[in-house]
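To close the chapter, one final illustration. This time we ask the reader to focus less on the individual chains and more on the assembly as a whole: which components sit near each other, and how the overall shape emerges from the parts.
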Amino acid sequence: MINIIWFLLISIGICYSFFTGNQEMGDIILDSSYSAYELILSIGPLIVLWSGIMNIASKSGLLRKFSNLLNPFLKKLMPSVKNPKALEYISSNIAANMLGLGSVATPAGLKAMKELDRENPNKGVATEGMITFLVLNTSGVTIIPMTVIALRKAYGSINPTAIILPSIIATTVSTISGLTLDYFIRRRNVK
Amino acid sequence: MLNNYIIPILVIVILGYGFFKKTSIYDNFIEGSIDGLKILIEIIPAILAMIFAVNIFIQSGVLDTIGGKLKDVIPMVILRPISGNASLAALANLYKMYGPDSYLGYLGSVIQGATDTTIYVLALYFGSVHIRKTKYALGVGLFADVCGILAAFIVVRYFF
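The assembled structure is written out below.
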């Protein structure tokens, strides 16, 4: 997948520039390394700072507390998941995702998948619980999109954090609509 | 309002909780930063690869053949579910062209902040337990993304 996308972006761009007689393509390629350097330098330090702060939340047990709070809601959302261990991993995955802690979220999420697969009668086929979990995960609410804020700041935004509330609203709409569709598909399958 | 307070509130709550629970907040901060730095170093090649490709694509001017006011958001919307780094590269181009506080700048910011790399996550998570038949997962995941993007359009119109 990523091979195709990468190749298409590069080949379409270069071929189009030949087609239009655009002579600047060489410069664009040379400049891209500098753009990457700028982007990494501008968003990097804030990501490192935020990782440090979030590790305090993780180590002090605040993250655990937060994920315990989510647990009952997730239980209701995923009635087919009976395994309490799976639910626990799912909660910590979602909680970590909400706080933008990718490095904590992914290991917990993969463990959750392993637990969910334990009670999977047809190996190799996704269960309802897995799908609901992943819909929640991929549409998931991030409270503070720190990478975007860092990038906005780097490009001289006068109000880099102005996007927090709009992003929370949009991501909530996305989560609710994903869960609703998932719910109706599950109900139709029961009938 | 909330936008300006949420970061300081989170910082004080997290530090306060850690402090009163008698954990060594400073050491944990350093430890977490080192992890963050490691992640940053690991994603540098991926960012470089994506900036390289996305810049060639966008700056070649191929999108000009489409026309319309929103054409410059198209790469972001298409790349977002596949690669976070690619859509970040497209977002940086959007900021460069229009500025982060323009309509398109806000729109791109909210789309990046509100949706996730659905296709990548599904591949990673299902792949980890060798699941090949993913049933309706991709459909629902992408449906949620589309709804999030539509919501972003509406919210940005309303807020800015």
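Chain A touches chain B through 95 residues (CB under 8 Å). Chain A has one domain: 32-190. With these observations in hand, you are ready for the problems at the end of the chapter.
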